[in-house]
Every structure is written in C-alpha cells, then in structure tokens.
Amino acid sequence: MEAAIEKPVTIPGFGRPLRSHEMVINMGPQHPSTHGVLRLELVVDGEVVIDMIPHIGYLHRCFEKHAEHMTNYQQVIPYCDRMDYIAAMSNDLGYAVACEKLLNIKVPERVEYIRVIMAELQRIASHLLAIGTYGMDIGAFTPFLYCFRDRERILDIYEETCGARLLYNYIWIGGLSHDVPSDFQTKVGDFCRYFRPQIKELNNLLTYNKIFIERTANVGVLPADVAVNYGASGPVLRGSGVKWDLRKNDPYSIYDRFEFDIPTGKGEVGSVGDCWDRYIVRVREIGQSLNILEQAIAAIPAGNVQSAIPKRIRPDASEVYVRTETPKGELGYYIVADGTTSPYRVKVRPPTFVNLSILPAMSRGAMIADVIAILGSIDIVLGEVDR
Amino acid sequence: MKDVLIELLRNEPLVYTLMAFVPLLWILPFALFAVWWERKVAAHMQDRLGPMRTGGWHGWAQTIADILKLIQKEDVVPSAADRMLFTLAPFVVFIGAYAAYAALPFSAAYVGAGIHIGLFYIIAVSSLVVIGLLMAGWASNNKWSLFGAMRSAAQVVSYEIPIALSLLTVVMVVGSFDLQEITKAQSGSLLNWFVFQKFPLLFIAAIIYFVASLAEVNRTPFDIPEAESELVAGYHTEYAGMKFALFFLSEYANMFAVSMIAVIIFFGGWNSPFGDFVSGPFWGAFWVISKSLGFIFLQMWLRWTLPRLRVDQLMYVGWKVLIPFSFAIILGVGLWVMMAT
To answer: 20 to 30 A from B86, CA-CA: which of A18, A255, A263, B3?
Structure first.
C-alpha cells in the first residue's frame, strides 16, 4: 500500500481543503436529473451535501450577440424561441412587447387576446413539464407521462395555429405571423373542459401522495427574505409566500382585464417555501391559467392580426426595459436602439438563471436526493440559463 | 424426482448436476417474459402501448431481441476498475438469487433439495446478493456506483431483519423450517392459508414481509440503490453487455423468489384455493406460479405508481416501523401458540 496522502486536496471554489472523509462528486453535465447540461460539483460527506459549486455555460449559444447582428428586429424572434424552449411563446411575447414599447405602437385588440391565450396555454404546457419531470426526479415515472399526454393537446392547438410544436415564431412585432384557425375558440374551450378533471387526477396520483410529501415537505426551505434578496421570481418566489406576479403587479398586454388569483406557498404540509410549496404553486397556477383562458376565448374580438407597421422597423435611438411573467418567472428584455434596423444591444434577464443562483444556498446540509428535489423544484431550462 | 433420475441414470453426481440446472429452465423464460410483461404493464398504466412490433403479436419477441443485442455488445471493463472483482460481481449476485431456488417447492412432487431447514437456507443464501452488489459498486471505481453499493448494503442488511422476523411467525405456528411442511399445513381451502390464520397477526406479518421484500429486491418505493434520477444507475452504472444482463436476470429471479416465498409461507404454496378441486402435482406448480405472478404484478403496480423514498426515510421505515411491529407480532403469535397448546 502507498503511504497516506499527506498533502490536503483543495478544489477551486471551495473555501478550505477537503477533510479525509469528504468527497467531491460531479453531477452532470450528463446526468438524468440536471434537466439538461448543468454541472454541479458536490462536496459530500457520505450522503450529506456540504457545499455545491454549479457550473453553467454548456449550452451557451450567444443569444445576445446574435441579436445585435441580425439585419432587423424581426429576425431576433426565432432566437427568443430557443432560449426557454419549453415556453417559446412567452419569450416571443416579452420581446414583441418590448419592441412595441420601443416603437410606441398599440397592437389590435384581437392580437392582444390571441397573445394572452397563447401565453397562458404555454404556461400550462410549461408547468405540466415542470410537474412531470419533478415527479420523475422524486422517482414517480407515471405522472410524467400523464403530464406529457395533456401537454400534447396544447401542442396540437399550436401546431394547428402556426405549424410548429416547440419553436413557434408566431408572435411578431406589431401582430402575429397569421390568424388563428376558425375553430380555435372551440378547441381551446374543449381543452379547458377536458383539463380541469386532469388536475384532480394529478393531485390524487402525486401531489398528496404520502411518499411525495415526505420527500418534498420541509426540504429546500427558502425563506421569503432570502428569495427576495437573491432576486427570485415566478413560482420560486411565490412558493416562499410572496404575492408577486407581473401580470397583476405590473400588467402588460391586457392582463389587467382578467380576473385570476395569484397562488402562493402557505406551508400546508411543511414550512413555507419548501419544495412542495413551489410545486403546488405551479399546480394551482395551471387552474388560474384555465380561468384566464375561459375569459379570453369568450371575449376575443374579430379583426386584423397585423398592425400597419413596415417589415423593417427602425426605432429611434432609445432604450427600453420590459419585463413579463413567463412560466419560470420574470423575463426582462433590455433593448437599446441606435436608429438602425437592428438592435444595438439586447440584454436578457432570464428568470431561471437568477433562480438557479439560490441552489447552493438551499442545498447546503441537504442530502444528495434532496439536491435533486430542490433542483427540480426550481424548474430550470438550461437553454435559458446559458442562452 | 431426484430418486427417479438416480434410478434411471445410476450416476449420482450427474443427477445432482442436472438437477442444479432445472431452475434455470424456469428462470430464463420467466425473465424474458417478465421484462416484456413489466414493459406492457408500465405502458398500459401510462396510457401508451409499449413494445408492439418485434415478433408481431404485441411485441412478444422484444426481450429476446434485447438479449441478442446484449450478447453481441462489447464487454467493456473500465480501465480504472478492479478487473477481477468487476467480472466476478454479477456472478455472485446471480448465485445469490439462483441458490434460493434449490429449496423452493414448485409442487408437492418437485423441490430441488428437500432440506428440513429450507426457509433458513433461503434467508441465509439470499444474503449473498449484497456481497455481489458491494463488489460491483466498489470494483467499478465510480463514485456513483459506490453510492449505490453502500446504499444497497445498508438497505438489504436492514430489511433482512423484518423479513426473517415476519417469516418466523409462521415457523412458530407450524413448528418446522421445511417449506413442504409449511405448505402442507395450509392444505384444505383458502381459509387455511396462513395469511387468514390467527387473524390479524399473520395478516400483518404478511404485509410486513411484502413491504420488506420490496426493499430486498430494490423495487420502488425502495429502489434507492439504483435510483435512476439520483445515481444514474447505482452499482451497475459501469456494466454493459452480458454482465449487465446478468444483473437484470438476477433482479427478476430475485423478484420471483421473494414472491414465491410470500406465496409459500402465507398464501398456501402449491395448494389449490378450492380444496381438492384442481389440485395435484401439476396443478400445484400451476398454482404456485400463478400466485407468485400475482405478487409480481403487485410489485410492478407499485413501481409504476409510487415515488421513491429517501435513504434516511428508508432506514426509518425499516428500523423504527417494520422491526418493532414484527417483534410485537412474534410476541403475539408466540402467546397465541402457547395458549392453544
């Protein structure tokens, strides 16, 4: 046998040398539960995580640089699709709203309603994916496929509308790429009627399952003040009991016309801000989105879906910051225009990037299985974290 | 059966060797069937179809195709692995699973080795599996595999206690470790099965055994050693080809073994549920196998419904719930037996 190693092992990013019973373990970038190509360096003592160093950037595709090099503003939209590819409609909506604010134009009523319907359908689809994969992280495989089955119906509606199922390029600046099919309202209405009982089924199968509650209640507790300090948004912030939703607090588009609640975490099965709270906020938001959908399809007016703006827009030299509530949280676009046909700078404030920054703080002292549960409850999409 | 063969061949070592291969005739087709069955069960629970194409009728040949693929695969051993232990581990695991079949009575006429301490032997020999799992995890030289191995060692060792204790209750009632004796003690009708005897004590013992056996064979909600979403694949992360297939095979062999023990101890073994109606050596095998398949279906049902426990919660369930309860039941059954005599 070789002599025991005398020199202490140090790793960059971890404050002190490793003790003899500690181990560094790499989770990712290829791991079933890091939701893409996130890499986590875990310092573990047995099963207990002492520290965690996340590494991102494996999916960096230079979105912001691409945006500067387009020949016009419209061409940025397909790149927006590819940030949070689970919720492409919501990304497009944010960009379109920002550009319209830059141009200072109002879009037709019909466009606003269709946009809201699309964004809320997208919210349901995104939350379904988050819930399904979260169940899988905890070890329940079946809810995942039930969620996918229901998400499929939303994708069918999208496919019928714009031909694409994942990356839509549907919401354009000043309008939509084209009008919805004639039976659109019936289809969405049918979906709402079909989907409400499915939430009950999901709750029976997963939400109130004893093992699921054991695994998620009191795990990864995020107090409200910590959440605010880190700049968390979306279900992560609301799970900590903070009633903050940009659709209500800083309304964009026509969200001020609809009645809906903002579900927050109340610590029903554990303490406020645990993984179960973040999970249940998503489940309840789905119900609220259905409310919005039902109101919107009842009120959708007839009309044009393109406002009269030129193909190549040329905003005056100015800058704008617009934030919208995507399924993951606050998505901000900071656009600087220099009077040419393409943006001078597009800075994105991605919700999951900011939310992910809380992960190490929440994971210290948890077990490896808890880290998976906490990561899943943040609901990250690496396409958006890395851009 | 053994005596008949010795009469016929007049060569005792040859007969024993032949007898040793008999369970394989059951395990291999069973594993092929059970993998396909599990995929079908999972698929239908999840609103999909599962394998539908290979072989024509509902993809019946899918697992055969899978096995053929696994045989052809390159046998990779990681360069940093301990070559000998790495190669040996799947065999140790399989031996542990396979050896239990020697003492399992498939019918009144067939039991590999009619030893008087059959139950004791099975409990002892199935502990071998955990050595194999530890070997696999350690020899892989992979941290995830090591985690899986440590978890499975802790899990299997803890859950063997409630298993042994819950089985002991029936041994106390019958007064024998012989599985044939235990089965015979349940003959008659459905109500003579031990699960309905000394109600509700043995019924609870049966539940404890079933829960603990799930942990013993690493099935959901106790599939912590493999825990796909945490440990990638646990102790067999680094295995490929036939070595991986051997782990898979022993998992299914183990599933059947624990289900069959439950059937023999608590659910009448090869006894027909209808008394003398449809009973006999052949029907005995039919009953014991179909009852065991019922339990395997139950395992699959749980697997595709429940989430997974965390390591510390698993230990909690084992040491603070199942073991105290099984002690209490042993006490209760002991008192009952004493009062009765």
So the answer is: A18
